[in-house]
Design goal:
Number of domains: 2
Distance between the termini: 18 Å
Number of helices: 4
Largest sheet: 3 strands, antiparallel
Order of helices and strands: EEHEHHEEH
Shape: flat
Low-confidence stretches: none
Mean pLDDT: 79
Helix content: 40-55%
C-alpha cells in the first residue's frame, strides 16, 4: 500500500482510479477520516478523571473514487471478521471436545478462542475503512495512507 499527499483546497480533484485496488473508478464513495484518535481518547479519558467532559475531533471528509467492488466500505473488515469468527468457533468447539478428555488442552484452547475473538474484533474494526487513513495534517495538506500504488501515481501525475 502507498500513501499520497492531498491538498485541502482541492480534495475532490481525484483521478478516476479506484483508491483501493487501482482499477478504473466508476463511483464516488464519501468517507470520513479522523486523525489523532489516540490523542482524542487520551483527552477524553483525562477529562473524565477530572470530572468534566471534553470532546475533541479532527478529521476530513472526502469523496473517493472507487470501483463497483469497493463501493461499500469494509470489504477487508468483513473478510477479517468472518475468518476470525471461523477460527474462534473452531477453537471453541475444540475446547469443548477436549474438555471431555483428560488433560489441560481444553483450558488452553478456550483461552486461545477468547484471544482469537478479541483480536478479530480489534483488527476488523481497524480495517473498516478498507485500510485507508488520513495522517500528517500539515498546513494546507494531509497524507492519505493505505491507497493503491496506481492511485498514488495518478494523484502525483
Amino acid at each position: 500500500m502507498a500513501s499520497t499527499r492531498i491538498s485541502v483546497d482541492r480534495p475532490a480533484a481525484f483521478p478516476p482510479v479506484c483508491v483501493c485496488c487501482g482499477r478504473p473508478a466508476t463511483l464516488l464513495r464519501r468517507q470520513e477520516f479522523e486523525t489523532n484518535t489516540a490523542m482524542t481518547g487520551a483527552i477524553l479519558a483525562a477529562s473524565a478523571v477530572v470530572g468534566s467532559l471534553i470532546w475533541t475531533k479532527r478529521g476530513v471528509a472526502l469523496s473517493l473514487p472507487v470501483c463497483d467492488y469497493h463501493e461499500r466500505r469494509g470489504r477487508r473488515a468483513n473478510k477479517t471478521f468472518v475468518r476470525g469468527m471461523v477460527l474462534t468457533v473452531a477453537l471453541a468447539v475444540s475446547a469443548y471436545i477436549g474438555s471431555h478428555f483428560e488433560g489441560g488442552a481444553a483450558n488452553y484452547l478456550s483461552v486461545a478462542a477468547m484471544f482469537a475473538f478479541i483480536i478479530t474484533l480489534v483488527v476488523g474494526m481497524s480495517e473498516v475503512n478498507d485500510g485507508l487513513g488520513a495522517r500528517s495534517f500539515a498546513g494546507d495538506s494531509f497524507t492519505l495512507t493505505g491507497v493503491h500504488q496506481k492511485f498514488a501515481e495518478a494523484v502525483k501525475g
